[in-house]
Write a structure and sequence with these properties.
OB fold (Dihydrolipoamide Acetyltransferase, E2P); nine-stranded mixed beta sheet; five-stranded mixed beta sheet; 24 helices; 54% helix; transmembrane; membrane
């Protein structure tokens, strides 16, 4: 009841979001007449019960949940007429339009496209659907291009390894279900400039502004940081830079969002206060604030995070400038509702939106309470205290999601933010001033020089914090249930200390007991676990043996030296099992040969690479076969083999041939490339 009084819109938006989440996990194609009928019946029911407030409030919850589900279901492209997935063959000629700015990758150009038509029987058939297309990196692509391509579109695969990031689910929320590759000879440009003209101008403007930044910040790493912080372009950031900023708890300054748009808002607000004539006229002040916010959004390419932040502040501007009596919580809820209705209900599944709104709510709710603990006269110390309160408030609100999605916590976030937030303010304001006056040779050059050293100082501070011992707590793994439990604990703790209610302390104690009990049960299970895993990796074989709270990962030197590959394929599984590479898990290098292992009374043979001879007349429970040379048929006939595990480094043709031989000899086959990682756990 307190939540409803504080945020009246919560009775609408919370069940609405619940309906969207339900559709995300259990999508069902509902016909349009049934959907319309359900909506009309629900509206009629609410209109009948509107005078019975208690009953109305109860019925409104499932009704708004239904609205959320139906809106989300109606946005799923594969439920539309003529979905592209129903028309695909081995090779198809497609008419596509590039609907987002292309991104340059290591060996290709990645573009999100809308498939407009497909060639069937020498005629064009209209279809609906979106796809990710990887073009040859020698091609020149632009937003709004219409192109005729020939490719094989494949359905996006789900995660092949336990705990791995679910890219298929991520793209599902963006209504993308297929991907393909296009070579130079299979592509032809039909027309340019077909996209949204505002979006096209935003992308063009950002590219030109990035070229201006390059003139004063030629160094690649520093230019990448400046481009990300000022203009929201993150493609040039290296994995090392991203890792350093994440370890320092400063990654939020590289993603143009609420912090950056908020700085623009504050700067314009301060400038308007210098001119009281403009500031007193609410409509003019509001217009200038909104004009500044959305102009900056256009300069940064109108990315999803910028649009979200600008929309949120637009509602705040309308509420504060045009209405004195406003509830900031209700205003924030209204902006979220607007984003879900206009830009798509599945936006709520984006990590960025969840973190942005939680951070804002945390700062609004917690920061004033924390700040009231100390009254400091010294302006510098007061500023340090205020920044610290803001940082702690935002971290309290977002840390559980950070554990769930990123599995880490920056231990020195409080220290780094004391330097990072002022640096971000300086770099953003100096950068925009430079971009505005760069044509003035002397003054523009001086401002550009100042910008260069500001970015260099920020990079120095971040790397300094990153190099501190134990700068990041990595390998945290919690479930969705644990995430909710932690949020309930934080909410109970805040309510207990802020409202000083005895009942809240009882709730807090009970939740802590449940959480600690959950952890004890989980740790006990992990201490007795025994697993053997063959991971699905295309480049190199990777095997793991886990025994209780320790284990080994066996792979090639190149794979074990590639942190990005290990993070993507292996680490998430180890974290789920309470293990961490370099501490509880050691690394073992394997060479192209055969290795024999014993695990849980099972004999495991790993064949990798070329061999002159093969074992004969032996018994193997499992034979793991990686990419390598020819394996004679005698190996399968002379040895007693219970199961063959075809590792993902094998080509499709080799796997097919080995499967046929195994079937002829009544040997069970497990193909990792098709079925995902092989995981054996002793029960």
């Amino acid at each position: 009841m307190q939540l409803i009084r504080l945020i009246p819109l919560s009775r609408c938006i919370l069940p609405f979001i619940g309906g969207v989440i339900l559709c995300s996990y259990f999508p069902k194609n509902i016909s349009t007449p049934i959907s319309i009928g359900l909506v009309l019946f629900s509206c009629l029911l609410l209109s009948i019960l509107k005078k019975q407030r208690r009953v109305f409030g109860i019925i409104a919850i499932p009704v708004f949940a239904l609205f959320g589900y139906l809106l989300a279901e109606s946005s799923i492209l594969r439920f539309k007429d003529n979905p592209i997935g129903d028309q695909l063959s081995d090779k198809d000629t497609l008419l596509i339009e590039i609907v987002e700015e292309p991104h340059i990758k290591e060996n290709s150009i990645k573009a999100e496209v809308e498939v407009l038509e497909i060639v069937k029987n020498d005629s064009f058939l209209p279809v609906t659907g979106k796809a990710i297309i990887y073009f040859d990196d020698t091609l020149s692509l632009s937003y709004g291009d219409k192109r005729l391509i020939t490719t094989q579109l494949n359905e996006i695969e789900g995660p092949k390894n336990p705990g791995q990031f679910d890219y298929k689910r991520y793209l599902f929320h963006h209504h993308i279900y297929h991907s393909g590759y296009v070579s130079v000879e299979k592509d032809s440009l039909l027309s340019e400039g077909n996209g949204n003209p505002i979006q096209a101008f935003a992308i063009f403007a950002r590219q030109k502004l990035m070229e201006q930044l390059k003139e004063v910040i030629p160094q690649n790493d520093e230019h990448a940081i400046a481009s990300a912080l000022i203009l929201g372009y993150k493609d040039e950031l290296t994995s090392q830079t991203r890792s350093a900023f994440a370890s320092a708890g400063a990654m939020h300054v590289l993603a143009v969002s609420g912090l950056h748009v908020g700085i623009i808002y504050l700067v314009i607000e301060k400038l308007l206060k210098i001119l009281p004539v403009l500031y007193r006229k609410k409509w003019l002040r509001g217009s200038l604030l909104l004009g500044g916010i959305w102009s900056y959004a256009i300069l940064t390419g109108l990315s999803a995070s910028v649009i979200r932040a600008a929309t949120m502040l637009t509602f705040v501007v309308f509420a504060t400038v045009f209405n004195r009596h406003t509830n900031i919580y209700n205003t924030i809820a209204a902006s979220a509702f607007f984003i879900l209705l206009v830009f798509g209900p599945f936006r709520i599944m984006e990590v960025g939106m969840q973190l942005s709104y939680l951070a804002v709510l945390g700062i609004i709710l917690i920061q004033p309470w924390l700040s009231s603990f100390l009254t400091i006269e010294n302006p510098i110390l007061r500023w340090v205290w205020e920044i610290s309160c803001v940082s702690v408030s935002a971290q309290l609100a977002t840390a559980p999601l950070g554990f769930l999605y990123f599995h880490q916590f920056p231990n020195y976030f409080l220290l780094s933010n004391l330097a990072v937030i002022p640096c971000a303010f300086l770099i953003l304001t100096t950068g925009l001033i430079y971009l505005a006056i760069s044509w003035v040779s002397v003054i523009g050059g001086l401002v550009g020089l100042a910008l260069k050293y500001e970015v260099r100082f920020l990079n120095f501070i971040v790397n300094l914090v990153d190099q501190l011992p134990n700068s990041i707590l990595a390998g945290i793994d919690i479930t969705v249930l644990e995430t909710y439990l932690i949020y309930f604990i934080i909410a109970s703790m805040l309510f207990a200390f802020m409202a000083r209610k005895k009942k809240a302390f009882f709730y807090l104690t009970g939740l802590l007991i449940v959480f600690l009990g959950y952890q004890i049960v989980e740790k006990h299970a992990q201490s007795n676990q025994q697993l053997f895993t063959v991971y699905s990796t295309r480049s190199d074989p990777a095997l793991a043996f886990i025994n209780g709270s320790s284990g080994n990962v066996h792979s090639t030197a190149s794979f074990l030296g590639n942190e990005d590959q290990l993070l993507f394929h292996v680490d998430h599984h180890l974290w789920k099992r309470g293990l961490l590479r370099g501490k509880s898990v050691s690394e073992k290098k394997v060479k192209q040969d055969s290795s024999v292992y014993e695990f849980d009374n099972k004999v495991i043979l790993h064949l990798f690479g070329e061999r002159e001879t093969y074992p004969q007349n032996l018994k193997f429970d499992w034979v793991v076969i990686s990419d390598g040379g020819f394996i004679p048929v005698e190996f399968f006939t002379s040895n007693k083999i219970d199961k063959i595990i075809l590792e993902a480094t094998n080509s499709a043709g080799r796997s097919k041939a080995l499967t046929e031989i195994a079937n002829e000899n009544n040997i069970e086959v497990y193909d990792v490339a098709k079925e995902g990682a092989f995981v054996y756990e002793k029960i």
